[in-house]
Structure formats: structure tokens, C-alpha cells
């Protein structure tokens, strides 16, 4: 629970990129550890995995795509995932797409929602080239990911027909299923058009059904009747990840503790400490495809060698955890009122590292057990108190042992096996949050819509804040379940938040933290360029506020100076846009009027000798120059181009109307009969 709460508290940080890290045993049926979210063991999933292993393959009828998330064209397919255990080296194959694909051992398999639509994506693959008779190059970038649709949202209706449906290529087709996704208080409706592109549907564009229905994603095993998947996205991710684990060094007998994955965006291998970059050497059991893949697991050529290597790695982990603990202890306290954007970024980085270390130290003991990896030497080392955790292990720490580890100095913990290293880190992390409360205070304020407001201004405020942190971080002895019958000295809405807080979906954490990483990077980068940042996450949109900066704004003097400089630059940019807009509007209007004037002279009744190639040439030259000027306005900024274009159109239409009216008056005066002089002669007398 603490890891989920960490992810929630620091949802606005640079956090949790290790999507496929720290998987539990495929054979033991423990679910994947996705972004530090502890998921319960599922017997149904275990049975599914066992059946897939026996059958050697499974299929699902769905849609797939390849490429960048923002520009996917989805195609229907019967997608088959197949063990290729008789190949050398063995691998997992995807069939039924445009060609066959080989998934590499260090691939990332993760869930992601695209505008509410559930999918999984796979990075780390090779496509089979028929003309060459072999697989092509490796692709690890998320912009080249394989996407599998795993629809979980209900069908609420179909699209209406509109006037553009048959006339224009971008028109909306009628009769497509409309799916509805609820995210907080926001409702997202979407459909797949006839070209396989996901489109949003407004309420007036939907013909709603009387009742909602659900698309069924079925697991198809050879020789068995199809079976509905309860959670298609999660189940599919687990099955594919389990197959990769079976084909990697995690198979029986295991020669590594964890399957690796490669994070292409940060160019790192994970999980930390159990994975490293592949060199230029030939392939082996830890990196079967050699330099073609990016990462290889920590292990050995045999089960016994891997056991000893992993046991050595545990000592390295202990040292690194205590080094990080020392860094947290030495970090200066920063009150909420004095915190700035730079301190937010520093806090984010340290807590991210601490969270990853806690994940590793909680997870790896389970991979050492006889029913999992079966590493007796490493398991014996992990059985000592300094490696014990207070959750999930068979021989857990007691509250007294947890508190004792927190009271000892780092040197005492480093030189002994009697004090828990993860407990020392967790104690220090809790203290770190108490002395740097800015992230937590701002998070709660926005998450509860200003109803839970904590402070660190006075001693009593700090005491209440400390109590909240203890419960929120699930410190042993502070159980959330106790709060249902106990009233704490906290604002009412803060206690309600603790009691009602539910674990966020792992894929939501992934998407939101990816977006928050970009926001935080823009907010803390002195060289970041201006522009409009589109925020898809409702939590982030609410927290950032109408100006898009409220949560990440710092309040130090340096930050205020930076803000003033940014505002000054914005003012200069706005003034420059106005000037460019006026200049482009004026000259574009002049050239367009000259062009239309030349055209009128060419085709008019009085064209005479003025007509000819030169006459039309002047028209085209003026129109091209006017068009280039308008292109320059749009290149400056889209609003500048739109404003200039609207101005030109208004002036041209107004001029045309004025000329038409003036010509009508002149024609009327020309045909008017002369006055009868006899009738008006008396006026001269």
C-alpha cells in the first residue's frame, strides 16, 4: 500500500518509469509489480498462464496498430502469441498482423489508455522480412511500439450521420459503435471510424442505446472453447510478460532473478541492480540475442553461478540503499512556504530513488524462494534481518524491529545484519517528507478541492502533518483501518481522505506521471520554450489550475525573479505578435486587392489591350506574394495567422460589396432620363 500511496502523493513528479520492473515469478502465479503497485495473487490468472504454457500459444480477436500513440491507424486482426521454444535462441512470436514479429527478451509490455481506450503496448521487437528471409532490426522506441486494443469500456450508442459523412474525407461515418469512459467527473466518448482512426464523439453526435452493452475479448487456446477475459488489458499484459519470462533466463532452472526491460526514453535498463547494458559480446543465456538486444539480467551461466552472483548483488543493494538513506538524512529541511521549483524537482528525484529501492527490497526475496527462482544461497542471505521487510515476506519485521532500525545510525545499520535496511530507508523517507512537506500539502489541497488543508506553520500544525504522513505512508503501527472507529486531531476532510483513498490504477499512474514529467520539466527548465501545453489528465488539469502553473510554482525570491522574467518575455512576445499580425494583414490585403484588380482588368469589358499572358501573370504573382505573407503569419503563431486571415477576408468582402454598390449607383445615374426644361423653366425666373 505504501508504494501505491507514494505514487499518488507524488503524482506530479518525475516518477515510476519502470513499467515492467520487478515481476514476480511466472510459475508461482504472482502478479506483476507495475509502478510499485502491489497486486494480489490471482489463481485465475495462474491457471490461464499454466494453460498457455501447456498449449504453446493463445489468440485474441481485436485491433492492432504500430507507431506513435498520437497517429495510430487501427486494423482488425486475430492476434496470436506463440512460444518458439524450439528455435535457437527461443523467443515469443506475434502472428496475425501485417507480418510476424519477434518480441525481444528485454521488451517492455505495459498497459496504457489512449483517450480512455484500454490498450497494451510492446516496445522491443523485430519484424520478419519475407524478401530477406530473416528478422529485421530491433525497435525499442515508444514511437514505434506495437499496440493491441483491449477494450474495456461499455458501448453506449452509435454515431449519427452528418452532412459531411459522404461528401468529405474527414466526415464522420454513421453507425460506428461509441464507447464511453469515465475519468473522475469527466466523460470521454470515442469511436473508430471506417479508416481505423480513433475519434472523439460529442453528445449530440451520438444516437444513444436504451441500455449499455460490452464488447467481449475472448482468450482462444488451441483445442479449447474461447473464454472471456475478465480484465483484458491486465490479463493480456500478464500473459505476454509471463511468456517472455518463460523464454528468458527466468525459465526452469532459473539463471537470473528478474527479466530485464529497456527504457528507451531514459536509456536505462531495469529493474535496477538486477539488470545491466549489453556489451558487444556474443549472445548467452542472459542475453540470447547478444548486441541486438539492449539489456541483460544479472545472473550466471548456470543456476549455481546465478545463485552466487545474486547473493553478491544483495550486498551491493544494501550499500546503495544506505547511501541513498544518508543523502535523504543530510538533505536540508525546507518549509512549505520556502519551497521552490528547484526544491520540488530535487525532492521528486530523491523520493523516486527511494521508492524504487523499497520496491526492489520488497520484491526480490520472493524470487529467491524454492517455488520461484530457487536460489538457496541468495535466499539464505536475504533471510537475515538487515534484508527483511515488514510486508509480504514469510518472516516479516515486527513493529519493534522497524522502529529499532529507524533509531539506529547509518553506520550502525551498515556494519550489522541485525537492523533492517528497508526499514531504515522507510523511516528516513517518512522523516524526509515531514521536513519537506510542500509536495504533500499542495497535493492534498488540490486533490480534495481545498477541503483538506494542512500546514507546517506552527508546532501543532507540524504534529498534525506528521500524524497524517504516518498513516498515509502506512508506517507500521498506523493502520488506515483503525481510522474508521477513531477520530484524529486532523481536519475532517483530511481523515475522510485517508479512509476513502483507494489505490489508483497502475496504468493511470503511468500516463499521469509521464505527462507530469513533461510539465515539471517545462516548469523547472530555464531554457524551456513557451507554448500551450495540453493536459489530458483530469487530476493534473485540476491541480495545475487555470494558469497551468499553480502546483509547480515556487515561492522563493529566485523563483519570483524567474517568473517576472518569463512574464516580461511573454509581454514582448505578445507585442511582437500584434505587430506581425498588423503588418501581414496590411501587405497581404494590398497584394490580394492588386491581384483581384488585375484579374478584373483581364476579364472586364474594358480590358482591351491589357488582356493577355502578362495580365494574368500579374494576378498570379500578387496572389502568390499575398499567400506567402499569410504563411509567414501562421509560421509566427497560429492565432496570428488566423487573425490576419480573418482581417483580410473581411476587408476583401467589404471592398467587393462597396464596389458593387457604387457601380450600381453609377449605372443608375447613367440611365436616368434628362429633365424636362419646360417643367423647370420657372425656377430660373
Description:
- With 685 residues, the protein is α+β, with helices and mostly antiparallel strands.
- Among the domains are: 171 residues; 119 residues, no CATH class; 96 residues.
- The strands form five sheets. It has a six-stranded antiparallel barrel with strand order 1-2-3-4-5-7. A five-stranded antiparallel beta sheet has the order 11-10-9-8-12, with no helix packed on it. A two-stranded antiparallel ribbon has the order 13-14.
- The longest helix has 47 residues.
- The protein is globular and about 105 Å long.
- Keywords: Membrane, Signal, Transmembrane, Transmembrane helix.
Question: Which keywords apply here?
Answer:
single chain, alpha+beta, 5-stranded antiparallel beta sheet, globular, signal, transmembrane, membrane, transmembrane helix
Amino acid at each position: 500500500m505504501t508504494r501505491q500511496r507514494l505514487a499518488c502523493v507524488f503524482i506530479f513528479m518525475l516518477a515510476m518509469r519502470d513499467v515492467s520492473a520487478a515481476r514476480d515469478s511466472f510459475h508461482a502465479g504472482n502478479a506483476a509489480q507495475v509502478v510499485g503497485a502491489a497486486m494480489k495473487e490471482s489463481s485465475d490468472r495462474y491457471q490461464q498462464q499454466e494453460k498457455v504454457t501447456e498449449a504453446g500459444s493463445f489468440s485474441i480477436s481485436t485491433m492492432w496498430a504500430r507507431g506513435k500513440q498520437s497517429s495510430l491507424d487501427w486494423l482488425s486482426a486475430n492476434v496470436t502469441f506463440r512460444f518458439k521454444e524450439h528455435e535457437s535462441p527461443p523467443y515469443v512470436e506475434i502472428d496475425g498482423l501485417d507480418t510476424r514479429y519477434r518480441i525481444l527478451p528485454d521488451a517492455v509490455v505495459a498497459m496504457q489508455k489512449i483517450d480512455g481506450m484500454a490498450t497494451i503496448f510492446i516496445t522491443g521487437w523485430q519484424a520478419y522480412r519475407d524478401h530477406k528471409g530473416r528478422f529485421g532490426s530491433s525497435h525499442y522506441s515508444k514511437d514505434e511500439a506495437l499496440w493491441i486494443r483491449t477494450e474495456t469500456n461499455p458501448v453506449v450508442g452509435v454515431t449519427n450521420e452528418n452532412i459531411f459523412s459522404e461528401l468529405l474525407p474527414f466526415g464522420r461515418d454513421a453507425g460506428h459503435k461509441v464507447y464511453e469512459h469515465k475519468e473522475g467527473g469527466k466523460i470521454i466518448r470515442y469511436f473508430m471510424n471506417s479508416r481505423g482512426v480513433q475519434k472523439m464523439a460529442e453528445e449530440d453526435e451520438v444516437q444513444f442505446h436504451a441500455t449499455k452493452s460490452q464488447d467481449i475479448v475472448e482468450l482462444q487456446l488451441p483445442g479449447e472453447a474461447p473464454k472471456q477475459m475478465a480484465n483484458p488489458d491486465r490479463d493480456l499484459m500478464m500473459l505476454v510478460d509471463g511468456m517472455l519470462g518463460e523464454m528468458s533466463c527466468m525459465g526452469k532452472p532459473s539463471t537470473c532473478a528478474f527479466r530485464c526491460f529497456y527504457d528507451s526514453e531514459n536509456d536505462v535498463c531495469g529493474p535496477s541492480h538486477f539488470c545491466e547494458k549489453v556489451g558487444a559480446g556474443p549472445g548467452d543465456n542472459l542475453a540470447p540475442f547478444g548486441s541486438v538486444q539492449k539489456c541483460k539480467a544479472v545472473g550466471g551461466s548456470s543456476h549455481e553461478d546465478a545463485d552466487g552472483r545474486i547473493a553478491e548483488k544483495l550486498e551491493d543493494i544494501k550499500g546503495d540503499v544506505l547511501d541513498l538513506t544518508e543523502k535523504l538524512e543530510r538533505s536540508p529541511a525546507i518549509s512549505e512556504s520556502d519551497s521552490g521549483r528547484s526544491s520540488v524537482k530535487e525532492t521528486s528525484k530523491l523520493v523516486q530513488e527511494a521508492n524504487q529501492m523499497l520496491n526492489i527490497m520488497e520484491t526480490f526475496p520472493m524470487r529467491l524462494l524454492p517455488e520461484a527462482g530457487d536460489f538457496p544461497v541468495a535466499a539464505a542471505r536475504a533471510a537475515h534481518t538487515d534484508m527483511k521487510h515488514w510486508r509480504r515476506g514469510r518472516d516479516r519485521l515486527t513493529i519493534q524491529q522497524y522502529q529499532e532500525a529507524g533509531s539506529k545510525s547509518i553506520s550502525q545499520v551498515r556494519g550489522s545484519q541485525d537492523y533492517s535496511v528497508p526499514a531504515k530507508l522507510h523511516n528516513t523517507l517518512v522523516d524526509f517528507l515531514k521536513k519537506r512537506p510542500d509536495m504533500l500539502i499542495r497535493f492534498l489541497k488540490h486533490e480534495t478541492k481545498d477541503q483538506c488543508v494542512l500546514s507546517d506553520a506552527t508546532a501543532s500544525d507540524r504534529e498534525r502533518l506528521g500524524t497524517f504522513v504516518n498513516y498515509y505512508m502506512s508506517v507500521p503501527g498506523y493502520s488506515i483501518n483503525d481510522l474508521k472507529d477513531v477520530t484524529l486531531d486532523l481536519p475532517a476532510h483530511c481523515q475522510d481522505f485517508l479512509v476513502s483513498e483507494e489505490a489508483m490504477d497502475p496504468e493511470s499512474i503511468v500516463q499521469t506521471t509521464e505527462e507530469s514529467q513533461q510539465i515539471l520539466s517545462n516548469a523547472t527548465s530555464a531554457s524551456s520554450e513557451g507554448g500551450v501545453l495540453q493536459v489530458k489528465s483530469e487530476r493534473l488539469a485540476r491541480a495545475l489550475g487555470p494558469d497551468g502553473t499553480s502546483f509547480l510554482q515556487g515561492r522563493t525570491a529566485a523563483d519570483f525573479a524567474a517568473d517576472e522574467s518569463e512574464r516580461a518575455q511573454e509581454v514582448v512576445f505578445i507585442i511582437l505578435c500584434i505587430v506581425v499580425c498588423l503588418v501581414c494583414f496590411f501587405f497581404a490585403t494590398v497584394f490580394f486587392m492588386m491581384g483581384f484588380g488585375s484579374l478584373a482588368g483581364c476579364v472586364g469589358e474594358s480590358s482591351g489591350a491589357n488582356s493577355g499572358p502578362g495580365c494574368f501573370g500579374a494576378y498570379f504573382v500578387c496572389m502568390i506574394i499575398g499567400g506567402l505573407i499569410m504563411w509567414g503569419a501562421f509560421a509566427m503563431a497560429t492565432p496570428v495567422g488566423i487573425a490576419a486571415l480573418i482581417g483580410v477576408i473581411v476587408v476583401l468582402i467589404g471592398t467587393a460589396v462597396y464596389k458593387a454598390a457604387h457601380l450600381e449607383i453609377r449605372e443608375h445615374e447613367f440611365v436616368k432620363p434628362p429633365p424636362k426644361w419646360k417643367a423647370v423653366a420657372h425656377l430660373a425666373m
